[in-house]
Prior knowledge:
The chain is built from nine helices and no strands.
Amino acid sequence: MKNKLIFLIVFISAIIQIFTWTTGHNWGGDFSAYIMQAISISDGTVERFVELNDQTKNLSSKPVGPVTYPWGFPILLSIAYSYFGFDIVIFKSVILIFFLALLVLLWFLYEKELDFFERLIFVSIFAFNPFLLKFGDSVLSDIPFLFFSTLSIFILFKLEKKRSYQSTLLLTFILGLFFAAGFSLRSNGVFLP
């Protein structure tokens, strides 16, 4: 029964976040390059995208970003784009899914270290944090990266316990996959290992 409360927190957090969404995007981020990169993946025009973005970067008096970002997040967006087309709300939904999964992960991450009420407070700090809720209105790789880096910590906790040789190998392999997923989302994911 107590574990079911996390799903109520997740549900309420999702509703609040959806109501903070706008139909646009703030102009302070790298979202447009992520989306253009995703569209180029879906349309099979990656070479053209790289060529045009490189030209834009080289001709700008103030370069605004790299020619390409790590490919993991654009690949996630390209899946959404291929099914739903260009829809900023759908792109924001990708972020929301990772945010909600992060909340559930945080609930189980400290299951042994924190009692029920401590975990309730801990997860609620993330679930109802105004900054994180508003951040969901952006199409950026930060939340998916936070999910995979936290998932890596979860697997490390599992590896701490004594296990059979086979399960240790399996968890180590899974951990490597999560490290790779984190690195594919953000360059600083190289520091996860």
